[in-house]
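Office hours follow-up: a student asked to see two folded examples consecutively, so here they are.
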Amino acid sequence: MTVTDILHYRDNETALQGYLAYDDAIAGTRPGVILAPEAPGPTDHVKRRARLFAESGFIALVLDIYGNGRTFDDMAEMMEQIKQTRSDINAWRQRIRSAVDALRQHPLADQSRLFAVGYCFGGTGVLEIARSGEELAGIVCFHGELTPSPHVGRGIISPILVLTGAQDPFIPREQRSAFEDEMNRAGCRWDIMVYGGAKHGFTNPEADDSGIEGMAFDADTDALSWNTMMTWMDIRLGKA
C-alpha cells in the first residue's frame, strides 16, 4: 500500500516540507528519488509522480523549492520568484541538495541508489546539482531548459538523461546542441531522447490549461518518456 506523508527538513534556517511516498509492503531499504517540481512548486502533478515511483518500488520525496511547501498561482509572482531563484545558483543547488540529504537520512532509502528527477524548472534545477558535482545513481530532466551553465563545480559525475520535445519552443534545437557540447566536454555519461511533435510540459495534463502557447500535454509521449526513464534507471540499478 502506498503511504504518503510530509517530511520536515531544513535548508540552513529555512523550514521545508517535502511530500514523501513509499510502499509499506516492501521490507527494508529501496532506491530513492527526489522530485524537483515545475515552477509553481509542489503541485498535484509532481505528487502523482511520487506515488507512481512508490508503486514502482522507490521511496520518493517531492522537494520544497520555495519553503513551507509554498506554491504559486499568480504568474507574475511566480516569475519573480523564479528570477530570484536563478539569481543565486549556489543557493538553488543547495536547496535541491538539502532534499537529497534528507532522503539519504531516511531509514527506508538505500543511500547508494538515489536519483534526482525534475520537471520543467525542476528539470533545470536537477541539471544544476549534476553540474555541482553531486554523485547520484542518475539525474533525469523532463522538458527542462538546457542552456549550458558557466557555474560548473568539480565536474559532472552523475549519469544524465534528458527527455524533451522536438516542438518545445523554450528548448530549441540550438539549445539542445549546445547542451550536448557541454556534456561532451564534461566527459560524463549522458543520453537525450527527443520526442517528435511534443511541446513543453508534455508530461503534465494541466499544461493544456496554462494558456501558454507552446505548452501541451501529450499522453503518448508521457507514457513513452516514463517507460524510457524506468528502463534507464533499471540499467543504472543493474536490473537490465
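And the second, which I mentioned at the end of office hours:
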Amino acid sequence: MDTKDIENGLFEISSEREFNELAIEIFHYQYDTVTIYREFVDSVSIDTRLIKHYREIPFLPVEFFKTHRIISSGLKEEKIFLSSGTTGTTQSRHFVADLSLYEKSFIKGFEYFYGSPEEFTFLALLPSYLEREGSSLVYMAEKLIKASGNPDSGFFLHDYDRLAKILSGINSKKVFLLGVTYALLDLAEKYNLNLTDAIVMETGGMKGKRKEIVREELHLMLKAGFGVGKIHSEYGMTELLSQAYSQGDGIFHTLPWMKILIRDTNDPLSLLENGKTGGINIIDLANIHSCSFIATQDLGKKYNDGSFEVLGRFDSSDIRGCNLMIG
C-alpha cells in the first residue's frame, strides 16, 4: 500500500465520515505490516473483515511499546523517542519512521489551537526533559522555538534570572511559556511576574522535586504566580505523534485526526458512554507507521462535545513521568 495517499488526507479531515474511512484504512495497513499488532488483534479473536467503524478496532495496550519494536515491516526508524520513566522502570520506545510526519502533526496541531508559531516568543522551561536523551517533547519545543523566528525564544535549563528578565521585557509579541510543573512553580515563587496576556502551559508532574498536588490547587498557584486567568495543559506521550490541549480547567480537546474513547476497566474490549469514568483509549492517525490505536494506562472521562478530562492512573501501572497531573 502507498501510504502517501493516507498522509495527504490525514490533515485534511473535516468530518466524522472522513475520519472513520481513514481510520479503517490505517487499521488494515497496520494489521498487515505491524507484526505485534497483528498478533494482538488475532489474540482477541476479531474478524478484521467485519470492522466497519473505528469504535470496533482493537486498541493495543501501551505497555507493548516497552517490550517490542513497533514499526511497519520494511521500514527503518529515523529516530527513537524514549519515555522519561522512573528509576527501575522500563522506558517506552517509539520508533518513528518519518520525522516529517511528527513535525507536520505538532505544527499543524499548534496552529489549530493557537495560531502560527511566528506570532509568539516561545519559551521552554523543561529541565527534567532536557537532562535526558530522546524526549519527543524537547524535539517539539525545539522546532516551535525555531519556527517562531524570535531571538528571545529558547530553552532555559536553570537560568531563571534570564528567563524572568525576558518575560518582564517582552511587549512586541505574544508569549508562550511551556514548562514542567515544578519548574513553573519555582519561577512563579521566585519572581513577581505579571504575564496577563501570556499563555502559560504546564506539562508533566513534579518529577520527584516537589510533593504532587491536585490539578485545581496547582493551577490556582500558577495563576496567582503569573497573573494569568487560565493555565493551559498539554496531553501527549512518547507513543503518540499528536497532542491534545487544554486551554483551561483541565478540559482537553483533540485534533481532527485524533479521538478519545473510554473503555470499561473491567472489560477492556468494551467502550463506555460519555460521562462515565474508565481507561483512556487514543486514536492518533498520525501514528501511521507504528500503531494508531492505543489503550493507555490513564483514567478519564469523555464529554458529549468530544472533550475529555484526565482523572488519574491505573493503580497497578508504572507511574509515567509525562504530561498529566492527578486531579
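Two things to take away from it. The longest strand covers residues 293-302. The radius of gyration is 20 Å.
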